[in-house]
Amino acid sequence: LIFWDLFVIPLKACFNYDPTAFTLAMDWTTLVFWTINVPVTLVTGFVKDGQTVMDVELIAKNYLRTWCIVDVLTLLPDWSMTLIETILGDTGDIGGASDTVKALRILRLARTARLIRLLK
Predict the structure, then answer these.
(1) Do residues 9 and 105 touch, judged by C-beta distance below 8 A?
(2) According to the 3-state scheme, what is the secondary structure of 16-73?
(3) In terms of pTM, does the model score above 0.85?
(4) Is 94 in contact with 111 (CB distance < 8 Å)?
């Protein structure tokens, strides 16, 4: 999924293309993955000053101060546009909103970079 986001997000931001069954399935898969990632991150420990922090309250506070903003700024427009497109069909540019959503999807690359950093 990480490599999919690294490839597809810039592609979608720069070009219009007709979605296929595969790309639609991958779009839903990545959207659901990143959505599930939010509650998982709320209970995943982190390292501070060389110590592993496992206190749920401290984990939640740390997440809300750091990556929560990025997650919300990417997930809300993604879910909004996905639901609108699903309910109304492909509406093209909804009052210029699709350009804004494309720009916000670039933030997903920041999350992808975070995952790559964690894998090292």
Answers:
(1) yes
(2) CCCCCHHHHHHHHHHHHHHHHHHHHHCCCCEEECCEEECCHHHHHHHHHHCCHHHHHH
(3) no
(4) no
